[in-house]
Amino acid sequence: MEAMTAQPTSLKVMTVNTHKGFTALNRRFILPELREAVRTVGADVVFLQEVLGTHSRHSRKIDNWPEAPHYEFLADTMWPQFAYGRNAVYPKGHHGNAVLSKFPIVHYRNHDVSVLGPEKRGLLHCVLRLPARPVDVHVICTHLGLAENHRQQQLELLCHIVRDEVPADAPLIVAGDFNDWRGKAHAILEQGAALHEVFVRAHGSAARTFPARFPVLPLDRIYVRNAAVHAPVVLPRRPWSHLSDHAPLVAEIEL
């Protein structure tokens, strides 16, 4: 009898706010250092927020500015698949969310969930196809607003997207910067989309991730549905505390 093709049974996922490739307060450009640090984690799927697509002034003034968009530069040779959702557009460039994947991204769509005002936000929904698995894996990269009433509306929109676009039996991972320092998202996402936060499930509370040097606020999250979780971790302060204003999160997701 022929040996069956081995199926991936888990995904290692990571979420990090790249702060547009600069240290806190924009004092130094550190995207090459950030890329090396992200590579050492060895994640299968990386959720990025505040990643630059282009910036004409920085590209002229900063010596080691990459020619490729930042999400392509970060993907390099380790993540052959990537998707970008442009959220904020300004005269010199644009930035948004991105997903890097070791597995094929067969479809993606960026949802504009901006509420009235200057703050532009999006939800990047990608569909991943893993070898020999009958059901695709859905992932949504999030970056929600600073105002609580905006986040409330954006969380409701996220629940609608999940109900409309994600099959009921499909594994789903939602990760990113929720700016939800009061912890209101847990109940909304559990009731509206059957999503559970991995650190809350494992440790009883969300991980503190902001500011990265001395984390106090639990702003970043990883939620799952139709998937178990093994060993969610906050990465050590070094080198991450000077690579972003947010501490990254990592979790092994059992499919």
UniProtKB/TrEMBL annotation:
UniProt-listed InterPro entries: Endo/exonu/phosph_ase_sf, Endo/exonuclease/phosphatase, GPI-anchor_lipid_remodeler
Keyword Disulfide bond: no
Name the record gives this protein: Endonuclease/exonuclease/phosphatase family protein
SUPFAM superfamilies, alphabetized: DNase I-like
Domain of life according to the entry: Bacteria
Record keywords: Endonuclease, Hydrolase, Nuclease
Domain Endonuclease/exonuclease/phosphatase: 34-246
MF terms in GO: endonuclease activity
Keyword set includes Hydrolase: yes
Organism: Variovorax ureilyticus
